[in-house]
# Entry
Amino acid sequence: MTDFVHPALLFILGAVAIPFLKETIRKAYLVLVPLLAFLAVLTIEPGSYGAAMFIGQEILIAKVDKLSILFATVFTIMALVGMVYALHLTRAGQHVAAFVYVGSALGVVFAGDYLTLYLFWEGMAFASAYLVFAQGSDKATRAAFRYLMVHVTGGVALLGGILLHGAATGSLLFGPIEGGPMEAGMGAGAYLILAGFLLNAAVPPLNAWLTDAYPEATVTGAVFMSAFTTKTAVYVLARAFPGTDILVWLGTVMALYGVVYAVLENDCRRLLAYHIVSQVGYMVAGVGIGTEMAVNGATSHAFAHILYKALLFMGAGAVIHVTGRRKLTELGGLYRTMPLTVALYMIGAFAISAFPFFSGFVTKSMVVAAAGQDHRALVMLALTMASSGTFLHTGLKLPYYMFFGTDRKLDAREPPRNMLVAMGMAAALCIAIGLFPGPLYTLLPYPVDFEPYTGAHVTESLGILMFTALGFVIFLKALDPENTISLDTDWFYRKGARGFMWLAEKPLARYEKAASDVSETAVLPFLHGSARAGLRLDLNGVDGVVNGVARSILTGGGVLRRLQTGVVTHYALAMIAGVIAAVVVFAVVWR
Amino acid sequence: MIARIVDFFGDEAHAIRRRRLFYLVLVLIVVADFLVPREHAEYLWERLPGWSAVYGFASCVILIFVSKFLGHQGGLMRREDYYD
# Structure
């Protein structure tokens, strides 16, 4: 216990100090903490730490094994890269949120029981929402509220699932959930847990929160968001649901879903966000296949993905930072003024497209090969098609319209040096992993029996990718970005909310007004009257008590009045709080 | 150096050389695909040299046109003020 430093604590406790530090010291501190956390992860020993009892349940703060170490390693590296990218920010808020976000993600990755997991899971949702709120615009605030609402709903599903599952199995320890859905061995609790996990993995139709909120986040915040939420979801899926057949199909659909939407997209970071959906599809499919090679593929792909996707978000973020524009229809011709950004972005693009000698090549192919080995020809073909689409958008369409294409004569320059350094760090890792996959392979949960660099595999990949480029060149006109937005599943709650607001504003508000009229005309005068009566009785000298009661009734009436704000969201929040409280009481008492 | 490489891909002046290089790469890839040894070819297409070139091109075309069809005819693409 003594030789174990929980990396999550370094970040979460470390966040407290950030607002009190100034200038250079703060910058050094922001880099130092992720470095320390990285060292802590490197020296961590597999085992169980922090076992305790809480409301009669076994709690295990940290369970360390190869799977959790792999994710913790890349999370701490990513925290370092993201922090360097954000060093130029002068206000502390986003740094604090990012620290809490990273810390919570690490907390999930090490959580040995469901209650610890749930706690950090919610921490992630709130901390990351701040990174969207911090953008400050009206649009971002709305998106952040939607983001928070979806995640709170997912969290409630997860909590409900945890309680049901705990009641059914008698243990809240986090581990593989026995019995796949096909054997009908999975209870309602397990399904709710799965739903909560799938929501955070952005599996369609539960994907819209991601593509809705990430492009609205701050330039630096989106880099963090691209890395942590979906990948912790991949981690928990790999931990609890390996070999669950439905995940194979969800993952495959997901890989293509993201690609199709990316064709339609005009906002550069939203296009990249749709490619998160697509790439996480490979991981979800890998977890679903569940063989040793498939889980290795899924987890190594998560590792590589975090770095190249962050690099892509950093590249697009640099463009937004410098030009203030985000739509492909308004960008173009930046290659003259931002050549370094172009080169670094392209390294990320080659990595995500799985070009030989870049990181995606040694990880994505493992998932595809595992699908082949498991005799899933259709999955293999669909995933290969999705890689063609990946290169088409992140490697060709986006850079073409952002950096080349029509020269819009934008006033641009390279971004601040810290941004370039962070991009350089991620780019170096993308190449290093591609050239020397060995160290990454030794980190994987199972022994690796896979050689990415065979002649046939290299020519096959190059064939897929370069002939995709041929298609791009020929049909360039058809791909011209259009000034539109695309409808996704967020339509249901964005339009649905409008219906709800109508209901709230018209019939409910009328009812509420009638109720408050009654309380104002009848109840309050009665309370005042009785209080006055109490004061009069006071003359007799039994007073102290009566006086107190009268006064409390008066103030109570005032509080009641203040509570009646008529703002529907307050009532909704109160109801949610009530539901959560009821669930907790239920859990404690009924246990 | 990096600026010059980026410039090669951007500047109109290099358009012809760029195009020639691109076609050369395409030819080389297909030729190489015919020459590489294939030991564990489990599926039919893995035994066909040049398959990946055909599949890559077809995937690209299918993705572009199916997506655009869904976007325009399927009603997925809307004006930017749709939600306002």
Chain B has a mean pLDDT of 90.
